[in-house]
Amino acid sequence: MQLAFEKDRVTVNFVSEIGIRENEYTIKVYAKSAISAYDKTLIYTSDKMNIRPDKNGYFLDIDYWYYTRVAKHITTGNYLPSCIDFYFSICVGEEENEIPNPYKVHFIRYLPELLAVSGYKQAKKLHSTWFCLPPEEDPDDITPQMEVLHFEKLLEISNSFRELYQENLDRVIVQISKSGANTIKKSLKDKVQKAIKNNDLKTEEFSLQPTFGTLETKIMNTEYGCIPVFDSYHFHEQPVLDDITLCIDDDIDGLLLKNCMLRVIAFGKVAPTGTNTKIQIEQLGFYLKDQYGFYEDKKEDIISYCEIIDKEKVIFSNKPVIREESFLITSTNYYNYRKDHDMGGDFNWYSSIHLEEVSIEVIV
């Protein structure tokens, strides 16, 4: 299925004037960078076509390969233009009539397709979602996308991510196992007490001990925005730093993991012991949360560089291979697209939850 933002075809229609003597017409196409002061450049002149007495038409498919060739033709020596204005003129005899208002094309509209060509299927899916959503002032008000990534897949393909996970698993186990107070242990106790207070404990079949912890993905409205139920019980989080996300390849890329957080929830049993409550933690659940968004217009964050070698070979990188043949992708590109088209909505996403068996006793 072709989404609205993916349509490449531009159509020019006109009706000939009554009494016109000429029998043929041509179409001229000009282009210029939408953000430069340089004059437009002639990039194409059609063959002569017969003038019809009713409606005359012409179309041009501006796909990513056509856009790239035009960008290289009109570039001024820096990065390739991120937005191009296309101008169309109808030429009849010696007379050339320019159609009012250029047709503006933003390079980033091609990114879902380019990501797919590069093999980044997950990033392609999320990018398509972004382009199809209307803009919102607060992405937290948008229903998040669930299980965008499989946590186990990340552990499998990335040594750096696996090290981050193991480091956090060890830290959480050590901190909640300590007899003294610490931030992680206190946060865990607060979440369990919240579950007790809200009557969120469950009683398993063949067991009289109530349990805490949930995998419920139902979306709830909270003071922090729209989140799945399980996320309201996370007690620890750790940023996934850029140097780790840059090492993740295969199905994942840096366009996907931008401001990512590794979060932890707990599962276990609760048992009263006199004036206290004993918590027996049996599982820890790890997952990722990130915001897929480019709402910042004042700070031009560099997201990636893209070089299109041919229609089948596209390279995304953290440094331009050849500066004059690369597109610089920034957060401002998305802001400008949103401003021109009133589409493009930031949203939150979650990975699947990875469960780790543990056995830790905590007294509340």
Task: Report on the architecture of this protein.
This protein is α+β, with helices and mostly antiparallel strands and 364 residues long. The protein has two domains: 4-109, Immunoglobulin-like (Sandwich); 139-293 and 349-363, no CATH class. Helices cover 24% and strands 35% of the residues. The protein has eight helices and 20 strands. It has helices spanning 64-74, 111-117, 121-132, 151-157, 159-177, 183-197, 242-245, 331-341, and strands spanning 9-15, 24-33, 41-45, 49-50, 55-61, 83-92, 95-98, 103-106, 202-203, 210-212, 219-222, 225-228, 236-239, 261-273, 276-292, 302-310, 313-317, 327-330, 347-350, 354-363. The strands form five sheets. Strands 9, 10, 13, 14, 15, 19 and 20 form a seven-stranded antiparallel β-sheet that branches. Strands 2, 3, 4, 6, 7 and 8 form a six-stranded antiparallel β-sheet that branches. Strands 17-16-18 form a three-stranded antiparallel β-sheet. Strand 16 and strand 17 (313-317) form a beta hairpin. The chain is elongated and about 105 Å long.
Q: What's the topology here?
A:
Blueprint: E1 9-15, E2 24-33, E3 41-45, E4 49-50, E5 55-61, H1 64-74, E6 83-92, E7 95-98, E8 103-106, H2 111-117, H3 121-132, H4 151-157, H5 159-177, H6 183-197, E9 202-203, E10 210-212, E11 219-222, E12 225-228, E13 236-239, H7 242-245, E14 261-273, E15 276-292, E16 302-310, E17 313-317, E18 327-330, H8 331-341, E19 347-350, E20 354-363
Antiparallel strand pairs: 1-5, 2-3, 2-4, 2-6, 6-7, 6-8, 9-10, 10-14, 11-12, 13-14, 14-15, 15-19, 15-20, 16-17, 16-18
Helix pairs in contact: 2-3, 4-5, 5-6
